[in-house]
Specification:
- The complex is a heterodimer of chains A (about 500) and B (about 500).
- With about 500 residues, chain A is α/β, with parallel strands linked by helices.
- Chain A has two domains: about 1-295 and about 380-480, Amidase signature (AS) enzymes (Alpha-Beta Complex); about 300-380, no CATH class.
- Chain A has helices spanning about 1-5, 10-20, 25-35, 100-110, 150-160, 175-180, 215-225, 270-285, 300-315, 335-345, 350-360, 370-390, 415-420, 425-430, 465-480; strands spanning about 45, 70-75, 110-115, 165-170, 185, 205-210, 255-260, 290-295, 395-400, 435-440, 450-460.
- In chain A, helix 8 (about 270-285) links the parallel strand 7 and strand 8.
- By secondary structure, chain B is of the alpha+beta class.
- Chain B folds into three domains: about 5-295, no CATH class; about 300-415, no CATH class; about 430-490, Arc Repressor Mutant, subunit A (Orthogonal Bundle), CATH 1.10.10.
- In chain B, strands 2-5-6-9-1-10-11-12-13 form a nine-stranded mixed beta sheet, with helices on one face. A three-stranded antiparallel beta sheet of chain B has the order 4-3-14, with no helix packed on it. A two-stranded antiparallel sheet of chain B has the order 7-8.
- The relative contact order of chain B is 0.09.
- The chains are: A alpha/beta (about 500), B alpha+beta (about 500).
- At the A-B interface, helix 9 of A face loops of B.
Chain lengths: ~500, ~500
């Protein structure tokens, strides 16, 4: 019973709860149990006891639409009184005095917090190996990474220890782990969901989004979280809200394939490219028009990103100074030494690298050459997308140039690690929504068992309902049923 | 020390004003002064992970009032920046301030150009436990975050001031102006008004500016003037000795009255400014700007111009009344009282007289009574009573001398001048015959003086006038008395 229960999408579970076939508490507790038995280091915190009984246990009489469904939350979101570390040792033991707006909205919609998921420290990484609490593992192959930085959320959803999860995406941190774990991951338009209470990495890029079993679940979570929030000046919400997807075919829709982020993309694995091509055929079969297009500046996306994001991070992470909360290096030392020791001890290598990069890029005399220039590249990239969307409704790319790589394979080579976000960073810079859906399995270059490949679909700002509709149709046409070895009902 | 001969002072001021909004600049915590430490804090002003700032609209409206009062151009879209530095009073590790596109630019106050006006947040308060009172050498340092995040407006003048006194007067005028707007307590002792000065010296006539130094922490107008004077003296001596002024920052120590250079580590910051991504550009609506302008009323600078042009007051008097808020309010009420009794005739004669009485006798009596500065608005001598008294002087119903006695009585006990005149018998003598008799008796009583006057020494008249005044208790008109004595002694 329990194993079958864990295979349900949340949408299906909610239907059964509403139909009286399933108890909301039973559903939630199955996950509390599963999460407690997590073997992938996907969680940094899980509840110690079953969920409290609510109502008559059927959920039928309760109004909030999510009916007590449990949700796993990336450890980047503050939840009052619950340890929140952002994957960093500098916040070990930190219990926030308040709850993030996105989490609060989910709770108001009837969801219950299942656990806090593992992640690259402060969202900086593409493998979850930069977690201060050990890497999360890929459910398809435990010698491989789940992607990152929302690797714990993606792994938990695919491993059936969470029905769904939320993560954050700064340059690909939802989409890339979703692709590598074979789940759906949506990065909404910048400003769709409040960032209040979401620990900042790069404020102008960070955006919360869902990681789910299917596109409908992504729509359900987005619908519950999106909206203007008075606590986040940059939040605007999505006009008209979110419609649940229903689309069958793709007739009349024009799909552009930017060659810079597909065939010409650096480091694209043959298996990924072939799987992507098969997905394009499926889209054509559904009646979609598919054509090549150009995003001429997108090749500079990573370079601009690795100036802008570290620059913002260098300021965002200045608050971890040992004065008010979190780690303080012990010993009676002078202020400067206390700062130095606390931050040396509390931050991991990648975080330090980015703080230094960002500090340098903002320094007097270098600002124009780095930050100023990167901002101009960002403007050009956004303009590229705007002109592409004059011809196309959606753009298609592989989500990641590669399938999940082996643990440690890129740990000593930051540039190789940064390449994992090659196809996702341009959309982040442009602030537009993009979703990754599973589109098949492929062997890694050099051979080995097949691993999931993600298809990225990008859309103009604030057109999430249309994007979800298109993704839904593609998802149904692809009809993927593959499960990780040893998993499944 | 003061400026050496042949040098010119070039002074610019940077003034920080804490706005008296109900809540902080970027969060909902209440503003406070003197409460227990760390009771007005929240995740935002303590910089908890994930918290975000939102702009206080009231603070923007207050800042717009200051900007429009200083005749600045308000930017249609201004940008907040992060100013990065590590210090425990700065919990985020950056201060949210404005940088290349401030709220407003290009204003003017009484001939001194205003470079810019911008909005930012105040730092928390550090308390260093130990002898030094500074972080170096202290045993422990504590942080009180109540003040952290208080809205601040920074006003930067162009280097248009030419003496320490001018700098102090301008700062005082700015304070009066802002105080009248009601957007800040502008209290230097409590720190709601803070003044830094940029000071340089050049040879008189040079067009180029000299190297400037920055003076911080002068927490009273007196210290501001004194600090600038000391620095000007130091710089001109450096130049006189053929040396170069080095750009540095000085900290004024009010206990010793001396300036000490800050260690270079303490101010040699690269603040790494960049646009604050957590806030959208600040775009005040036209309506907000118009409302700010309409709320201004008559500001001190305009009031001075009106006093000079319409009332014909001398500049010094006009300035004193326009720039001293309490005195100005008193004067305005006295003018109103005079007008309502039909007294002012439009020529400004009575207004000038009232102005003289307010700035002269009243201020002097109040100072005596209060042993220093005194607030005329809380005086027992009401503006209405003063106006009535001036009207009596103008109508020659009391002499100036008698009126002084009446004013002294008003200051000490209040009341109605008519009654005091009646009670004390101070009405001006109008019976010419009676006065003539008194004058004759006085000449007889002072034969030596009378003789000297007869011999052509007019100054010797004093004792005779004095005798008349004693006899008449000051009720006689001084001019008339002098005329009568001269007449008697020349004809006799």
């Amino acid at each position: 019973m329990s194993a079958e229960l864990l295979e349900l999408t949340v949408g299906e579970a909610l239907r059964r709860i509403d139909g009286g076939e399933l108890s909301a508490d039973e559903y939630a507790d199955a996950y509390a149990e599963a999460a407690a038995e997590d073997e992938l280091n996907a969680y940094l915190w899980t509840r110690e006891s079953p969920f409290a009984r609510e109502g008559d246990g059927t959920g039928r009489t309760e109004e909030p639409p999510l009916r007590g469904a449990p949700v796993a939350v990336k450890d980047l979101f503050c939840a009052e009184g619950i340890e929140t570390t952002a994957g960093s040792r500098i916040l070990e033991g930190y219990r926030p005095p308040y709850t993030a707006t996105a989490v609060r909205r989910l709770e108001e919609a009837g969801a219950r917090l299942l656990g806090k998921t593992n992640m690259d420290e402060f969202g900086m990484g593409s493998s979850t190996e930069n977690s201060g609490y050990g890497p999360a593992l890929n459910p398809w192959d435990r010698t491989r990474v789940p992607g990152g930085s929302s690797g714990g959320s993606a792994a938990a959803v695919r491993d059936r220890t969470a029905p769904w999860a939320i993560g954050t995406d700064t340059g690909g941190s939802i989409r890339q782990p979703a692709a590598l774990c074979g789940v759906v991951g949506l990065k909404p338009t910048y400003g769709a969901i409040s960032r209040y209470g979401m620990i900042a990495f790069a404020s102008s890029l960070d955006q919360c989004g869902p990681l789910t079993r299917d596109v409908t679940d992504a729509a359900l979570l987005l619908r519950a979280m999106e909206g203007r929030d008075g606590c986040d000046s940059t939040s605007v919400g999505i006009a008209g809200g979110i419609e649940l997807p229903t689309r069958e075919g793709l007739e009349g829709l024009r799909f552009g394939v930017p060659r810079e982020l597909s065939a010409e993309a650096e480091g694209m694995e043959a298996g990924v490219a072939a799987t992507f091509e098969r997905a394009l055929s499926t889209i054509r079969d559904l009646g979609g028009e598919v054509d090549e297009c150009a995003l001429p500046h997108s090749a500079h996306g990573l370079s601009a990103y690795y100036v802008l994001a570290p620059a913002e991070a260098s300021a965002n992470l200045a608050r971890y100074d040992g004065v008010r909360y979190g780690l303080r290096a012990d010993g009676e030392v002078e202020l400067g030494a206390m700062y130095e020791r606390t931050r040396s001890r509390g931050f991991g290598a990648e975080v330090k690298r980015r703080i230094m990069l960002g500090t340098y890029a903002l320094s007097s005399g270098y600002y124009e050459a780095y930050y100023g220039r990167a901002q101009r590249v960002r403007t050009r990239i956004a303009a590229d997308f705007a002109s592409a969307f004059e011809r196309f409704d959606y753009l298609l790319t592989p989500t990641s140039p590669t399938v999940a790589f082996e643990l440690g394979a890129r740990s000593d080579n930051p540039l190789a690690m940064y390449m994992a976000d090659y196809c996702t960073v341009p959309m982040s810079l442009a602030g537009i929504p993009a979703i990754s859906i599973p589109c098949g399995l492929a062997e890694p270059d050099g051979g080995g068992p097949e691993l999931p490949v993600g298809l990225q679909i990008a859309a103009p700002a604030f057109t999430e309902s249309g994007l979800l509709d298109a993704a839904y149709a593609v998802e149904r046409a692809l009809g993927l049923t593959a499960t990780p070895p040893g998993a499944g009902p | 020390m003061s400026l050496a001969e042949g040098y010119e002072a070039v002074i610019g001021l940077e003034i920080h004003v804490q706005l008296s909004t109900r809540t902080k600049m970027f969060c909902g915590c209440a503003l406070s002064f003197g409460d227990d430490p760390n009771v007005h804090t929240c995740p935002i002003c303590l910089a908890h992970p994930g918290s975000l700032p939102t702009i206080n609209e009231r603070a923007v409206r207050y800042a717009l009032q200051i900007a429009t009062a200083l005749e600045c151009d308000v930017a249609p879209r201004s940008i907040f920046h992060r100013k990065n530095y590590f210090y425990p009073d700065n919990p985020k590790g950056y201060q949210i301030s404005q940088y290349d596109i401030p709220l407003a630019r290009g204003g003017r106050l009484e001939g001194v150009r205003v470079h810019r006006v911008h909005l930012e947040e105040d730092a928390a308060k550090m308390i260093h436990v130990g002898e030094s009172g500074r972080i170096h050498g202290s045993a422990t340092s504590l942080v009180d975050f109540n003040r952290g995040g208080t809205p601040l407006v920074e006003i930067v003048s162009e280097p248009d001031l030419r003496s320490p006194e001018e700098a102090r007067e301008w700062a005082q005028l700015l304070r009066t102006t802002i105080r009248q707007l009601g957007v800040s307590d502008v209290n230097m002792e409590e720190g709601s008004l803070r003044c830094d000065a940029n000071v340089s010296v050049r040879r008189a006539g040079d067009a180029e500016l000299g190297t400037k130094t920055e003076l911080k922490n002068m927490n009273s107008f007196r210290f501001l003037e004194r600090g600038i004077a000391a620095e000007l003296g130091r710089q001109s001596m450096v130049l006189e000795a053929g040396d170069q002024v080095v750009q540095e920052t000085f900290h004024f120590d009010p206990r010793t009255g001396s300036l000490t250079p800050l260690r270079s580590k303490e101010y040699a910051h690269d603040y790494r400014y960049f646009p604050e991504p957590d806030l959208v550009p600040l775009a005040p609506t036209e309506e907000m700007v118009r409302e700010a302008r309409e709320a201004l009323g008559e500001l001190p600078a305009a009031r001075r111009r009106r006093y000079e042009a319409e009332l014909g007051l001398p500049e010094v008097t006009a300035r004193q009344l326009a720039f001293d808020a309490e005195l100005g309010a008193y004067f305005e009420r006295a003018l109103e009282a005079a007008a309502s009794r039909g007294g002012t005739d439009g020529t400004g004669v009575e207004a000038r007289s009232i102005a003289n009485w307010v700035t002269g006798e009243l201020v002097a009596r109040l100072r005596e009574a209060a042993d220093g500065d005194a607030d005329p608005s809380s005086s027992k001598a009401t503006p209405e009573a003063l106006a009535a008294l001036v009207a009596m002087v103008e109508a020659r119903r009391v002499t100036t001398g008698a009126a002084r006695q009446v004013l002294a009585a008003l200051v000490s006990e209040g009341g109605d001048p008519e009654e005091i005149v009646e009670r004390e018998g101070l009405a001006q003598m109008s019976d010419a015959g009676e006065l003539e008799g008194i004058v004759e008796r006085a000449i007889e009583a002072e034969p030596a003086a009378a003789e000297k006057v007869r011999e052509g020494n007019p100054k010797a008249i004093g004792p005779i006038v004095g005798a008349v005044m004693r006899e008449t208790k000051g009720r006689a008109d001084g001019g008339e008395v002098t005329r009568l004595i001269r007449e008697k002694l020349s004809s006799g």
